[in-house]
Amino acid sequence: MNEIRRSRRTETPFKELFDIDAMRVELSALAERVLGEGKAGSEIELRGQLARRLKVAYQAGHKTAERWLMQDGSGRRCAERLSRLQDEIIQLVHELAVKYLYRSDNPSTAEHMAIVAVGGYGRGLMAPGSDTDILFLLPYKQTAWGESVAEAILYVLWDMGLKVGHATRSVDECVRQARADMTIRTSLLEARLLLGERALFDELTARFDRDVVEGTAVEFVAAKLAEREDRLKRAGQSRYLVEPNVKDGKGGLRDLHTLFWIAKYVYRVHETRQLVAKGVFTAEEAKIFRRCEDFLWSVRCHLHFLAGKPEERLSFDLQREMAERLGYLEHPGLQDVERFMKHYFLVAKDVGDLTAIVSAALEERHDKPVPRLNRMIARLRRSPNRKLKESADFIVDHDRINVADSSAFGRDPINLVRIFQLAGKHGLAFHPEAMRLATRSLKLIDQRVREHPEANRLFLEILTSRNAPEIVLRRMNEAGVLGRFVPEFGRIVAMMQFNMYHSYTVDEHLIRAIGVLSQIERGDRPEFGLANELAQQIKNRQLLYVAVFLHDIAKGRPEDHSIAGARVARKLCPRFGLSASDTDTVAWLIEQHLTMSSVAQSRDLSDRKTIENFASVVQNLERMKHLEILTTADIAAVGPGVWNNWKSQLLRTLYYETEPVVTGGFSETNRARRVARAQAEFREAEQEWDAEAIDAYIARHYPSYWLQTDREQQVAHARFILAAEAQGRALATTAKTDVTRGITELTVFAPDHPRLLAVIAGACASSGAHIVDAQISTTTDGRALDTIALTRSLERDEDELRRAGRIASAIEKSLSGEIRLPEVVARKLTKRPRAFTVEPEVTLNNSWSNRHTVIEVSGLDRPGLLYGLTQTLSRLNLNIASAHVATFGERAVDVFYVTDLMGAKILGAARHSAIRRALLQVLDADDEANAA
């Protein structure tokens, strides 16, 4: 518990923030005037006027605090200033309440109180939008006076618009409730006397220490760690999410608070620096704690000021302005916002390191509960420690690898790599003391160690382990060893990519990709489909792991990261022990690692030219196998819900369509056989149909449909179409939600015509629905079967499906001509600020197809974009033969296979220029009203 503390550095200028003396004079005069009028309800009138005047002063104080924060950059100092502002307002309101509203010239012992700041406010640190948590501590014997004063203070604070958490209790009640409720116990742990009866506060302090804290350290630590685990499940387990929660996310302020609560409870300290004397932190680690705290408070205070509310998530739309406020500058290859977020993630990593250090110290004291399995193992063994036969420098301590002594890394710096190899080989967790020593020993990893054959052999074994390479690599990265041993990897540690596509930092994405590759190899995830099959066929798994590990290694450089990454691979692969031939393959895979995904999602796979062009890139079957697996791992590691059955099916189709070309005509599974197999599987799933009906239905779809649509969707389509036709409906729609991908799929079955896609896109835009994907196909009898993926808007499935029904109704009315789309779209779409900028590009190519001109449009995605593009193509008298719509975060990539009205390719430079100009106008438009 704390008494009110004020920083000397904030004392001198504080009157500019809040001049309590001048305010006291002004408000006293106000009170005397209002009460002197003697009107009924004058006390209520006085409270209202006090609140209004103090609210103005409070807001002015916040503006001054923001200005000072912009000047000195100290987040902790800002939080101290805001806390002190709150202290003095409460002190002043209390003075006025007891002087003018509830005066007691000769108070009895029952008419004493202490006002105590608790919880976050008790620390003496507040963000602009923090709650104010206060405890009115009253004697055992109470009178109405205490409750009346508390009520008057609360009404003024509430009328000021403040969020106040409050309790009115005696010391006995505080102790009793703290024993029963861990939240109240934690809140009282931070108690700080604001004003009033010191004897009451001292009694609470003594009773809390004696009756609550003493002998309960293990219970408290277990509760706080469990609470942290629950919180991280809600906020996101990774500390490398690209839109982190500054307060509750992993590596955020709440983690630091939890550390300090535990330290304060267990070690009975009041300041971080006292943990050095207790042997928990070194002086350098205590300095890191204070540096992390100051940075996170700075970010949180800026975030609240910028958002104008208690916003805790560093969302994309705030990150760029946050970077500017914090003074980050752009460097070649890295935007200012990316440099800011990299700093943020490095701080989050430091917070994780500090958490491990405190956990280790608690285990040494036996204040942290050891997992039950570890306790059982310890009892079964004669000795809790045993040596590893591969190296005398390491021991196993309760199933965790540890150093035999503190000089293990100094004796042999290669041990800094060996410890991770041994942990992976034996499935051991890492002892926090070993990781702490490894972090302190990073300077031992020099060029000699990096080039040592044994060190590189060990690293390659870690990377390609069949056990859990992702876990070991992540710990290696968190300890700083990975970035030190592979400096090129060190450059992308904690680097975020300022886009909505990637959910993680670059280093975390690469490590997760290795984890996905390991799952593919084991066949753990059936949804990875073809990749699981091919992983059992490849001849050299090592080069595939190296390629996955390095595929984004050159992110953040001015040049194309695929080309630069291939150059990095040519340097690193020989060091890792790969042959010249394997090095060439790895470099090629990195240079082409985006190609297969791009072709599969944005090209017409039934067009022979698409396949021939892709085959000329991959050249042989073995490379294509590697590329398919790498592509799967890359997409799946981007973020939750990015990988789906449709992408799996597209990659499978591209692979099998290209296979006969690269093998010179020989195909392990030729196209006709694959179509027949897909149709047979469909027959198997629909056994209740009679043979004639199912034959007729199968004949309605082109071969490409059976290859590019997964069986589950084929069955859903069939039932939907038959139900629509049974009802005599020429136009029908159906919808389903996909929680994993955060989308709603809307399928439309209608007579095909050239402007169908434009009408569907316009109807979606008019309903405020945002299209992120589209699968478009036609039947042999002239019907269109289009599935549109829309961004989900509502949390509950039933609400989202009702919304989908309204969108479907808009589509049907648009197709029947009941509503005029241009006018409706113009009314619905408005200008809005954008967090991202994407350079618009329009490419027309006649060599990508034998029959069509291919138009590829890339730019910033927004509601109504697809409608604007398709309307423009229609206005230019172009027929859309097929369209391939994809969204990669904020970037839309839409590809249209078009002809002129006579069915011919679009020829002539002037015609191409006119089309390009018209589409660029759509991409540049602030809203679709300009494009409609």
TrEMBL record:
GO terms for biological process: regulation of nitrogen utilization. Has four distinct domains: an N-terminal nucleotidyltransferase (NT) domain responsible for UTase activity, a central HD domain that encodes UR activity, and two C-terminal ACT domains that seem to have a role in glutamine sensing. This is Bifunctional uridylyltransferase/uridylyl-removing enzyme. PROSITE patterns: ACT (PS51671), HD (PS51831). Residues 745-822, 854-930 form the ACT domain. Its cofactor is Mg(2+). It comes from Ancylobacter pratisalsi. Pfam families: ACT, GlnD_UR_UTase, HD. Residues 1-387 are annotated as: Uridylyltransferase. SUPFAM superfamilies: ACT-like, Nucleotidyltransferase, Nucleotidyltransferase substrate binding subunit/domain, Poly A polymerase C-terminal region-like. Residues 506-627 form the HD domain.
